[in-house]
Each structure stands twice: as C-alpha cells, then as structure tokens.
Amino acid sequence: MFKKILLCGFVAFGVAACGNGGDNTSETSVAKVEAAPSASGRDQIKIVGSSTVYPFATTVAENFGRSTSFKTPIVESTGSGGGLKLFCSGLGDNYPDITNASRRIKSSEVELCAENGINDIVEVKVGYDGIVVANSTKSDRMELTLRELYLALAKDVPDGKGGLKPNDYINWSDINPALKDTKIEIMGPPPTSGTRDAFVELAMEGGCQTFDWIKALKKTDKNTYKAICHAFREDDGFIEAGENDNLIVRKLNANPNALGIFGFGFLDQNGDSVQGSVIDDTLPTFENISDGSYPVSRSLYFYVKKDMIGTVPGIAEYLTEFTSVRASGQDGYLSEKGLIPMNAEEHAQWQSQVRAQKTLSLN
C-alpha cells in the first residue's frame, strides 16, 4: 500500500520551480501551475524505493503539494532493491513512475526493465550520504577501524594461519582488547536495501581488504573474494532490522550497548539520542562526508520512466523542483534534513541532464 504524502513546489519542467527551478540566480515565488489532463488513466505520481532517500522525497513532496494544483504523489519506502524490482516490473498505470535508490542502478536491473518494455530511464543524482554506525548517547561513542567493523560482522574471519574460521568473536574486546567488553550487537538493513549494498562495498570490503591475501583474491578469484567479504554473520551478532531506520533508532535507545547501521540523515535528525561512531579516526559529519574523508560515503539517486513524463501529470515538474537549487543545492532545504549536497558545478551538470531528460547509460 502506497503511503500518501504531500509533494513540492515548481512550475513547468525546465522553467522556474519554487522560484527559478534550479538556476543559480535567486529564487522567487511563482504562481501555482494548473495540472493538465492525464493521457493515462492515472493522475497521481507513484514513487517507491530507498528508505534513505524517502525523507528527502517526502520533504520535496510537501513543498510540491503546497505550491501546485497537481495531486499529491503516493510514496512508499520499500528499500532500493525492492523499489527497483517494482519499478522494472512493467510500464503503465499499475507500476511506479519513480524509484528512489541509495546506490546506483545495477546492469541486471536495467536488463529487467528492458525485458518489461522500460527502455528509457532518466537518472537523477540527489546528492551524497554517509552510512553511520551509531549507538545511543547513553553509552560512550565507539571508535572503530574498518577492519574491526568487518571482523565484528563477517560470517567467516581470518584464522591467522592463511585460512578462515567461523566468526567466533562474541564481545568487542575479543577483536581488540582496547574496545569495550560488551557483546557485539549490530542492527542493520536487509539485502534488499541500498544501504546494505553500499555498506558492503564501502565498509565490509574496506575492512576485508586490510588482509593482503584476501585483497589479492579480488583479482584472482572474485567469487571467493565476495563470499569472504560480503557475507554477514548469521548469529545474533548481526540483526536484520528491516527497512525502517526510525525503528533502529528506537531500538538503540532501548539498548545502549547495541549499534545500528543507517544513513547520515537519520543520525542528523536524531542527534539528541544517537551518535555516530568514529570510523578510521573520522567522525560522520556533514563536512567529512562532503569532502570524502569519511570512509563510508555514497551517492543517492532516483530513477524515472521517461515514457511516463507527460503521461502522468506532474512528473516533469517534480523533477524540476527536486533538482532546483532551492531544494538540493548547497544551501537548499534538503540539507536541513541531512542531505549532503553536490558542489555547485556538479549540481548544475545533473540539473542540465535532467532538464534535457537524458536517458541512462551505464557505460
């Protein structure tokens, strides 16, 4: 069931939205735009996808709904993988028009879309996000290395003899005597989540590659490398907590010894109760994520069916608003929600591509 939310202000696609729609000049208010009749049987945008991008999409949505005569889009948080599966399942009124993603679309997903008649996809980069490993402010802040994080989470770990053993680390102090003598309890997203995909690539592989013999496997035996670096432990050291990051935050407050994995935006919104761990001597701050020094940082996207632009009313205008300087620019309102914006030059490049409705190419 799609969750209703209010959408964000704009005018016609390529023209000012909530002002100038993203030009670098100052933005001023504009009159509401009347919704055109739908060429399909539906006159309401459907959006699915990433739980990380969801708060940003809903914020844009609220402004859009207040400023226009278009119907409020229907938005659902399904996770990146789940959203892309729905998005690529078909073309038309019964399928989502847009899907949010906290990682880039995969070639296999592009192929699935093509199999179902979706050949033209517009890619929109939203900005950046850091993946945090957070705990309750009732406890001391954790300071971890990528290697320690990998050893805490991996299904199998190096045995010190050039091989592997089942992960038998129970307490953090088992990994490093300098760490807390408390049980390893980490809550994180399921395999359908883009946050999980990005965390595996950035954190798990980052820690895995600190072992030279495993790092060498990436060139000689990719399947074994992935099996070692990507597989999470299956005991209660790691707990899949679903796609609801707010639920993880609540559970951290209830269990001060536990850690949770989620996007920086949720840390930013809940900074009074949870804190981000230091990873490789770097705090997950707006500045450290923006300049790339925080090691677990990623790009955020959403994807649009080009065939539905002009078919379902409001899609083009929604794109205009989301890519406006007012929304996703460096001083845009999404930064107040925890989005790490692109620099002005990169933002302008993406804005231009979206205005031209440039179709996706993974080459």
From TrEMBL:
Residues 35-324 form the PBP domain. Gene3D superfamilies: Periplasmic binding protein-like II. It comes from the Bacteria. InterPro entries: PBP_domain, Phosphate_ABC_transporter. Keywords: Signal. Residues 1-17 form the signal peptide. This is Phosphate ABC transporter substrate-binding protein.
